[in-house]
Specification:
Elements: H1 2-21, H2 23-48, E1 60-67, E2 74-94, E3 97-98, E4 106-120, E5 126-132, E6 134-137, E7 140-142, E8 151-183, E9 189-208, E10 211-218, E11 220-223, E12 226-228
Antiparallel strand pairs: 1-8, 1-10, 2-3, 2-4, 2-8, 4-5, 4-6, 5-8, 6-7, 8-9, 9-10, 9-11, 11-12
Helix pairs in contact: 1-2
């Protein structure tokens, strides 16, 4: 039995070495495995953000002012929270049915007791999807069908304005962010195409026109790989 285990280890090590160090192995990995490894990595990073430890030490208070262009590739989970804003919409779906709002490329929306997620992709497009007690679009209110407790919905488009309160996220990472950062009582720090990581964030996020504001508490704030901390 032991020789079988040893043989298996030798085979695994050999394959790993072939993929990592030989020219043909690298070509094989890039051609046939690259997209699958990237997908697996993205999946693992996504599920990591859904787990929060039982004890989080949020001691850093901070405020960030940045632009809509810098605030992208972020994701938030919601549970039983209100959310409202304005979108230059691309698509609207209520209860699985697509809805077209004529003569208006912007919609004001408000959802009550929403459970779902909000994401902003690398192009800055926002998608809001989930279920809610009600969905209000430009003063038209959609309520659950008979026998159902909530309305299923999805909204997608470029954000004009919105306000998110009591947001929690394991980590927010920004590459090339510009604007300003204020940490507790420090003087404001200028952000100019910097890399910024915020760990165990809880707070508020809002946008008005092109200005995005993020404020709240975090366990760590890392700027260009350097942990910013306060001396006790």
């Amino acid at each position: 039995m032991q020789w079988k285990v040893l043989l298996a280890l030798v085979i695994v090590v050999g394959i790993t070495g072939f993929l990592l160090f030989s020219k043909k192995g690298v070509e094989f990995k890039e051609k046939y495995l690259g997209k699958y490894l990237t997908t697996i990595g993205s999946y693992l990073r996504g599920i990591t953000g859904k787990f929060t430890p039982t004890s989080v030490n949020r001691t850093l208070e901070f405020k960030i002012t940045t632009s809509q262009e810098s605030f992208k590739d972020v994701y938030f989970d919601f549970k039983e929270k209100p959310f409202e804003g304005t979108l230059k919409y691309d698509s609207v779906s209520i209860g699985g049915q697509s809805i077209s709002i004529k003569d208006n490329d912007e919609i004001d929306f408000r959802v009550e007791s929403m459970s779902g997620d909000v994401s902003i992709n690398e192009n800055g497009k926002m998608t809001v999807s989930g279920s809610s007690l009600s969905v209000e679009l430009n003063d038209i209110i959609f309520v659950p069908r008979a026998g159902e407790e909530k309305v299923e919905f999805q909204l997608s488009g470029m954000p004009v304005s919105y306000s998110l309160s009591d947001v929690e996220n394991y980590e927010m990472s920004f590459t090339g962010i510009s604007g300003s950062l204020r940490l507790s009582d420090w003087s404001p720090l200028k952000l100019d195409e910097d890399d910024l990581n915020i760990v165990y964030f809880k707070g508020e996020i809002s946008q008005e026109d092109d200005s995005v504001r993020i404020s709240g508490m975090a366990e760590k704030v890392r700027l260009n790989g350097v942990d910013l901390s306060l001396k006790k």
